[in-house]
């Protein structure tokens, strides 16, 4: 846990410290502010993965870094689980849009395929979350938490810390997190942590799955047209996470199952 606490301190310190620079500068130079157009925004966001990489090297050396890199490679089970995640998030956003339509008394327009594809491309290019964070949260912290705690406790604990890391963004106008209450936002982040842990246990700690989940969560959340729809989306994520827990998704697998999932995705000789 000392390593995890060091990671938390470094990730929070770097992210909040770098993010504070444009916020403080804006008091004297109004044209300077923290936004997706500011390079410091991306540097702050990537600080989590940077912290994970630095501490992996500090505690495990070059061998640890190679091991971390190997976890980014797809496994034989990756295609099946990626499809599961895609279908899962498609269901969550469909339920969200249906509930939003019922609440308004009018159907919500479903985005066209061209809009959906352009949105995910924009998310891949502009969203620093998946790559900027997951080498830290799921790459460094989660394996160490699972060495000490149950999968459910590790997921909830990491999710709460991850949500707290976002806290300043809820008070910065223009940030997506500013459009939703912090308790509901926390529900969504803890839900992502539960999904990631369930996949972690079934794909031999594969980091690609965490990146896919993070990407789809942010992309689908961006499809919510307003604060009400975003709140419904986060609540639906929480409901899906509860089903994963109740369905045994956080149950540890047997050594045989783990070995089967550990095989890299490559054609048989």
Q: Give the number of DSSP strands.
A: 0
Q: Which residues form runs of ≥5 with pLDDT under 50?
A: 259-269
Helix content: over 70%
Rg for CA atoms: 19 Å
The biggest sheet, with number of strands, parallel, antiparallel or mixed sense and barrel status, is:
none
Mean pLDDT: 82
Structural class: mainly alpha
What distance separates the N and C termini?
A: 42 Å
Q: What is the molecular shape?
A: globular
Order of helices and strands: HHHHHHHHHHH
* Percentage of β-strand residues: under 5%
Number of domains: 1
Number of helices: 11
What does this structure look like?
- This protein has 269 residues and is mainly alpha-helical.
- It has 11 helices and no strands.
- It has helices at residues 2-25, 39-45, 47-70, 78-104, 113-126, 129-146, 151-165, 182-202, 207-223, 227-246, 255-262.
What's the arrangement of secondary structure elements?
Layout: H1 2-25, H2 39-45, H3 47-70, H4 78-104, H5 113-126, H6 129-146, H7 151-165, H8 182-202, H9 207-223, H10 227-246, H11 255-262
Offer a concise description of the structure.
By secondary structure, the protein is mainly α.
Can you give keywords for this protein?
globular; 11 helices; 269 residues; mainly alpha; disordered C terminus
